[in-house]
Design goal:
Elements lengths: L2 E6 L6 E7 L2 H13 L3 E6 H26 L1
């Protein structure tokens, strides 16, 4: 089973970057690294990551849409 360590921006809550790992141990170590440099971090299985990434993308698109509406 593959795992994904995901860095999450503390201010916006949006995904910043991720690393795909073969073991959960490596994903946890990578998440700890992301936290040490100032991000929130989470470890997902590959399947859960796809779903979470889609949800994050939809939230980001909605935020962009709201910002554009405010500018007009």
């Amino acid at each position: 089973m593959s795992y994904v360590a995901q860095a999450i921006d503390k201010n916006t809550g949006f995904f910043v970057t991720c690393t795909h790992c073969e073991s959960k141990e490596m994903a946890v170590r990578t998440a700890k690294y992301y936290r040490s440099i100032g991000y929130n971090a989470k470890v997902f299985t590959e399947d859960k990551y796809e779903q979470a990434n889609k949800e994050n993308y939809n939230k980001l698109r909605e935020q962009i849409k709201l910002q554009k509406e405010r500018m007009c």
